[in-house]
Amino acid sequence: MQLINFIFKKLLILLFSLFLVASLTFFLLKSIPGDPFSQEQAVPEEIIKSMKAYYGLDEPWHIQYFKYLKGIATWNLGPSFKYEGRTVNEIISEGAPVSFILGAEALILAIIFGITLGSIAAIKRCRFPDHVCMIMAVIGISIPNFILATFLQYFFSMKLGILPVARWGSFTQSILPSISLSALPMAFIARLTRGNMVEVLEQDYVMTAKSKGLPLFLIVTRHVLKNSLLTVVTYLAPLCSGILTGSFVVEKIFGIPGLGGWFVTSITNRDYTVIMGVTMFYSSVLMTSVFLVDLIYYFLDPRIKLIPRSASHG
Amino acid sequence: MSLKSASILIFLIFSTFSCSRKSEINLKQHEEKTLLINLGSEPPTLDPRKISDNLSFHVAKMCYDGLTRMGPSKEPVLSLAESFSLSEDKKIYIFKLKETCWSSGKPLTSYDFEQTWKQILSESFASPSCYAFYDILNAKKAKEGEVSHDQIGIKALDTRTLKIELCRPNPYFLHLLSTPIFYPYPESVAENNQHFIEKKENSFVGIGPFLITSWKPQDKMILQKNMTYFDESEVSLDKIEISFISDQNTELAMYEQGEIDWMGSPFSSLPSDAITSLKQRDDFFDAKIGGVYYYVFNTQKFPLTNASIRKALSYAINRKELIHHIFQTNTEPATKIIPSILSSNNAGYFEDGDIKKAKKLYEKGCTELGINPEDFPKITLSYNSAPSIHKKIAQAIQQQWKKNLGIQTALCTEEWKVFLDTLSKRNFEAARSGFASLTKDPSFFLEIFAYENAPINHSGWYNPLFSSYFEKAKEASDIKRRWDYINLAEELLLEQMPVAPLFFYTNCYLKKSYLSKVVIDELGYVDFKWAVKKNKE
After folding, report:
1. pTM of the entire structure?
2. Where are the domains of chain B?
């Protein structure tokens, strides 16, 4: 019952936050100068007028606002102003799966290697393997992904010729972008894991397990990891939403038809419907993943109470 | 150093190490007749009636055709039209159409043209380039809703005869007809293609040398040769594959690997930091195009209200030096407005970097304004943030004005659409701008300044004499008189200097040696209709 109550409350907050994001985006967009139809070779007044009428931009703002909220509620986000015959729904449903696959690959890489490296470093603390792992992590954090991407592209595609330069469609085309995308989160996860695990390894119950004569592998996988991963899970929520909805830079460098590019190009084009659509999509994914993380917490660590303290006392 | 230039630098460092490994790619059999190109972004529309951008323009050229088309000799040749006659007063064109059909099998008729054009000119139709029609009788009035559609000078006399009546003679009318905005695109075709784009059903209908067979947004567009095209025997390519990579370094890497056959203008641009090394190569080309880059002065803002001051500022810029430091290509400095490739008169109207004269004019201007040269206000130079070349140009001008006239300037960078807003609201003192023409007609370059309140006239400058020269040029029935008035108007313009011209645009691109017979007209528009891709063996 407590769990259901908790879920219900969280969902309400989630919906309200989405409404806030939608409204803020709308008013921010209305306040920035420029419109979708302005271009360098200025267009005569009467033509601008007919184009604005066609897209409903000549209506008073409150009508536009309600139409837009209604569109979001029914998830009918309207046509793109810039790209003829394309709807925002289409742009999202075409771009999101691509970004999602790429992001998932990167995420798997980051989690597997990040946790492994972090664990090795923690177990062999202050010894050679620790130094190697942490140097790798520092490199991962400090090299921006566009440099890593350019380097990988140059080395594996241009120099060795074993992987394609860019484009999307086959597994080989996804290798380089997912590596470039995973470097930073991998390094971050490795550091988080190491930090926590070093602490956990000194806990009494680990000592007990050790003195029982359990093999190290079992101690780590059964007892230590679970308790060291809480912070990693917290980090995973924003990471997931960020990485799964697409990275502008990596997608641009590898020419991947994902969603990432739209976050930037739609603003440059003042393509209002697309900006609002992708923003809403991103915030929904972000908030859903935060919500899921809250739930995962509950199962990972029963000490965390879901309901406010005052209620639990009562 | 920005992120982008950092990555370009890294790329360049690596590529210089590997220069020895020149890509000598032998085309595979199936690639031989497939052209591979890349567009920097997606074409915003496939509807020729609504085109206002370069990329859509080029895709439209592949899949549609007009009454005329720019031919290999850089002159318009008849395309969908079989013949035409022109009346004595050069105002009435009568075109006879070829017997040909759309790829759907439906025959092309002159009604298709009439319907398309009248639709563009209807009040409610959103078409950003429809001003190109305004030489046609009553076209402008119809767009403004003043006259009915029957009074527009466009009439299909029978299924294959089309009569066009102009309100004044236009010696460039056949050029104009070759631009995609004049292509036939009747509602039935428009609906069908809309369906093709939106629902991915139906097949695409066109009337050009190629037809789109598939389009995966942001990923790939594939065009196949149109077997029903009237000039099918002249088309050598079987297929065109278009990718949409926006990253210039990736595009360059793909070009080096032979994954694309063309890199750079007009489809994308070469990384500006790489031009120095690229221009040494055999596959590098540059071509002058009909466009001018200038700084526009807000003539309604003190002290730029004074013509001597504006002239002083313009004369004090050393264009050759600026070009040498920034472009390293053979970009042509501009001391006039109409690009020399479109002009009858190649000489400029003043000397580039004439500092002596600039100083004199500056002092004269200050006296006229009644201010002390030491109290001369700071001038702000506005420009848009991307591409970074605009910033370099503004910095160079800032330095030259300081050195040559002792004037202080501030730089103001703005995001593109914000910048457009600044321009249209005349919220600037001096701002980067430019103009590239849709057709060869030089009068478009002067039209910018002909009307005081035209949205494109950012300078706010208006001169009745100039406007009367402009009108007389437009009305002139013989080309020599037309040129006389155009030259008079241009001279007056540069005497008043509401804009300081800097240089004429140049297209830079890399093209594989196995690609030939690509037609590039004087305005830099590329046509692959006649292109041939072959191994040299």
Report:
1. 0.83
2. 34-43+192-285+508-533, 48-188, 288-506
